Amino acid sequence: MVAISQLAIDEVRQMPLAEDDCPLECNYFGRQVIEAAQEYLKEQGEKTAEPVPLLTSFERREDMGRGRLQFLLDGDADVIVTVIDNKGHASSVEFCTAIMGGGRSPKVRDALINVIKAIREENLTNPLPT
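^ that's the sequence the OP posted. Answer follows.
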């Protein structure tokens, strides 16, 4: 496991190079390493964001008003995606964890969890009128 802190990045950024006493961030390669560390730290912060709770439905109407998407993590943490049209007709698909069977599309499941997080954020920051 790799761990890094903002303090470590800030300290290294100012470390003088032996060759010309310029801080590491003045050096082309030093700047690349610092930028990579900053990006890694940012990604780690995003991964520790609030997890998606089980058995809670997340829903978002589509932009043209013809239907909505509904997402649910069931008790096994499988992602159930339901498309519901404006007449109430629905169709669902399920992407399972590898633990309880299925699990043939782990990248798709992870991407759908990110969609759930995006819907949760959109519903908080940009709610649609009901």
